[in-house]
Structure formats: C-alpha cells, structure tokens
Write a structure and sequence with these properties.
CATH architecture: Up-down Bundle
Helix content: over 70%
Largest sheet: none
Number of strands: 0
Shape: globular
Number of domains: 1
CATH superfamily: MFS general substrate transporter like domains
Distance between the termini: 31 Å
Structural class: mainly alpha
CATH class: Mainly Alpha
Strand content: under 5%
Radius of gyration: 20 Å
Order of helices and strands: HHHHHHHHHHHHHHHH
C-alpha cells in the first residue's frame, strides 16, 4: 500500500508538470509563425530542438538519479523547467524561442527518472500497470494543457496572446516543484546508489544495451513508434491550418481529445490488458492501430475525420508506449533502471529530433499529408518487428482467461 501511494505521488508530480508542457507545445507552431511565417521546416526544427537537448540530457539524468537518488534529480529538472517557461514568456525573437526550447529539453530528462522511480516501487508483474499510470498522468496533463493553452492564446492563428500561456506553464511547473519537494520520498537505498557508482559509463551502457538482442529490438521499436508520432505531433497545427483553417483553440481541443483516449487506456485498462494478453501482443496491436490512425489523418479533409483518425492514433500509442517501457525495464537490473530507461528516453528523443525534421521537410516539399503517409509506412515496419518480440526471452505472454 505504501508503494502504491508513492507511485501515485510520482504520477501526480508528472501530471502537474505536463499540464505546463501541454499548454505550450501545441502553440509553438503559432509562436514560430510570428518570426518564420510559411516555413514548416523551421517550425518543426523549433520543435525538434527540445528533443535534441532531451537526447543529451536523459541518460545523464538517469545515471545521476541512479547514483544520487531520484528525488534530487526530479527537483532540479522541475526548477529548470520553471526557468525555461518564464524565459519563453519574454521571448521576442526566433533565437529566444530556440533557446527556451533547448532549456525545456534539458529539463525533460526527468521523464526517464520518473519511469525509474515507478520501476523502483513496483514488482515486475505490476510494472506495466505502473508505467500505464505514469502514461495516464502524462496524457492527463497533455489533455488539460492544450485546452488551457488554446483558451489563453485565442482562436485567431495570426493574433495569439503569446505571454499568458508561458506564464501559466511556469506556474504549473512551479506547483509540481512544490508538491515534489514536500511529498516525494527517495526510493533508492544507499546500497543501490553505491552499486550504481560502479556501473559502466553512458557510452558503455549504450553499447551494452545495443549488444543485448531483446533490448536492442525494443529500442528500435521505440524509435520507430516515436518517430512516427513526433512527425504528426509537430506538423499537426500547420496541417490543421492548411486543411481545416484551424487556430490555436481548435488545435488545443483536438490534442485534448487525444489525451482523453490515452487516459482511458493507460489509466484504467493497461494493467488488466497486459496481464491478460501480455505486453508483446499489446505492442503489436498498438503499432497496427497507430499506422491506421496516421493513414486516416493523411486522407482526412473534415474536422470529424481528423478527430477520428487522431483518436485511433492515440489508442495505438496508449498501448505501445507503456508496453515498451515495461519490457525495457524488465531487461534492466535493479541498479541500472535509471540508466537503461534513460537510454530508452534518449532513443525516443533522437526519434523526436529526426522525426520532425523528416516531417517538416516532407510537408514543405510534398504537402500537408506527406508526413502522415511516411508515419503510416514506418508503423507498418514497426508492426512487423513487433511480431518478433514474443519470441524473445523474458517476454511475458499473458494469462489466458476462461470464457
């Protein structure tokens, strides 16, 4: 019961912080349009800057949390996040937007630490449920955040209120910092932190992870699924402006719908689904549904079709992400959870770096639907690889249920 309470507190901190994240992210293309109008590639690079810095920061945060403890790293990263949003509220040039995104990316390494925290306080059998709870907290934050940000920025894509959403994001991250400071306990014992000091460095750890076939396959799958979703996420606002003539408010409301789907699955069903069917089956189904959602979005020409396609995509992602995180954590030892999950997040950050670059280039050269065609093909490849996961050692197969 103690571990369940601690797990809920960690999820609460992540939720509050991700509300702030969700407020800003759907608005970034509109911020970018103020300084780089009609340049989709530049705007997607603005989004990708966050991921490039997260790529560098995630393994470092993970390793430091293994050695120093989860709690201090969570507090430091939240303080960095507050600073980044406050700077964004005063941004008056394109370079400032890029600089604030870089600082936000550095602070975002705390997701891998939060995953390690969940892994610390759950048994392997409960790991998927714990990762699902964390995913639901992220989804809930990403449900409320865009709705709040869209409301604060207004419905006109050419005349947004830029400072108010950034101040609101800083306020939510500051609240998460206060909650974490007063409620979170350190889950790692002194013995485990001492053992982590003797673990190999980041490059050696990455080489070790890629040298283990089951883990390597999972990391590739995480890269592919994140690549496809990041391409959609970073071009959706521009796609919606081009196809549907939407502004920040409509984009924020659509992201809120996506978040609701994620909450329903990751918050309530993922634990039972993983127990019955196993993470490998969920991963396969999620990859197929993600591909279908992206294909539907490429063809959508009406608001209703766009919302349906986004919901299917969200359903697929709500299955793939916690399934992969759970399977990756099963491949890591007790003293290397933070480092291994940090590598996993770095792989995801790399995908969120190159995915938006590819999507922005495709958007600019081939039109609004091109990024989603590419994403659908990538998820088709991911589904083929997901078929191999069940044959890997240590992969739970689920518990058959009576009719």
């Amino acid at each position: 019961m103690y571990f369940k309470g601690v797990m809920l507190l960690m999820a609460l901190v992540v939720f509050i912080d991700l509300v702030g994240f969700g407020i800003v992210v759907p608005l970034l293309p509109f911020y970018g349009e103020l300084y780089a109008p009609s340049h989709p590639f530049v705007i997607t690079m603005l989004m990708a800057t966050y991921s490039g810095c997260q790529l560098l920061a995630s393994p470092l945060w993970g390793r430091l949390s293994d050695r120093l403890g989860r709690r201090p790293i969570v507090l430091i990263s939240l303080l960095t996040s507050v600073s980044a949003y406050l700077w964004l509220s005063h941004a008056s040039a394109l370079w400032m937007l890029f600089a604030t995104r870089a600082l936000q990316g550095i602070s975002a390494g705390n997701i891998s630490v939060a995953q390690a925290y969940i892994a610390d306080v759950t048994t392997p059998e409960k790991r998927a449920k714990g990762m699902g709870l964390l995913g639901a907290a992220i989804a809930l934050g990403f449900t409320l955040g865009p709705a709040i940000g869209g409301w604060l920025a207004g419905p006109d894509p050419m005349h947004i209120v830029a400072a108010s959403p950034a101040y609101a994001a800083a306020g939510f991250s500051a609240l998460a910092l206060v909650v974490a400071f007063f409620t979170l306990k350190e889950p790692l014992s002194a013995e485990l932190r001492a053992a982590a000091v003797r673990q190999p460095g980041r490059i050696e750890q990455l080489q070790s992870a890629l040298g283990r076939p089951p883990l390597r396959l999972l990391l590739i799958l995480y890269f592919l699924s994140t690549f496809a979703f990041a391409g959609m996420e970073t071009t959706f606002a521009q796609w919606a402006m081009a196809r549907l003539d939407w502004g920040p408010r409509q984009v924020g409301e659509t992201f809120a719908v996506v978040g609701i789907v994620l909450i329903l699955i990751q918050g309530g069903l993922i634990g039972r689904l993983a127990k019955r069917f196993g993470e490998a089956r969920l991963l396969l189904v999620g990859a197929i549904m993600s591909g279908l959602g992206l294909a539907g979005l490429a063809a959508a020409g009406t608001p209703d079709a766009a919302i349906v396609a986004c919901s299917i995509l969200a359903l697929g992602q709500s299955l793939t992400s916690p399934a992969i995180s759970s399977l990756v954590s099963r491949q890591a030892g007790a003293s290397e959870q933070g480092g291994t999950l940090g590598i996993n997040q770095s792989i995801g950050a790399f995908a969120r770096l190159v995915g938006p670059m590819a999507a922005g280039f495709a958007f600019e050269v081939r039109g609004p639907g091109a990024p989603y065609v590419i994403g659908a093909l990538v998820m088709l490849g991911a589904a083929v690889l997901a078929l191999q996961v069940r044959s890997q050692p240590g992969v739970p197969q689920g518990v058959p249920q009576p009719p």
